[in-house]
Amino acid sequence: MEKTLKGVAYVSVWVLLWGTAASLADYVLLEREAYTPGTPGQLITFFSYGAATVVLAIRLAGRFLKDDDDNEG
To answer: I need a labelling partner for 13 at 20 to 30 A (CA). Which of 5, 7, 28, 63 fits?
Structure first.
């Protein structure tokens, strides 16, 4: 797969993971009335999940973004 396309796909998957995880956590916190919509708590939830996702994406990038030439024997 072309290196640029592989990079775009990698980032896209992480954005979807971040959005899904943060939205599920937000839903639970809203249902439990931990905070209300539009408050700093909601911002902190999405920001913290975003930060964690960035850290994981960077740490795991080497495994998924290596050149195809590296896989050939």
So the answer is: 28
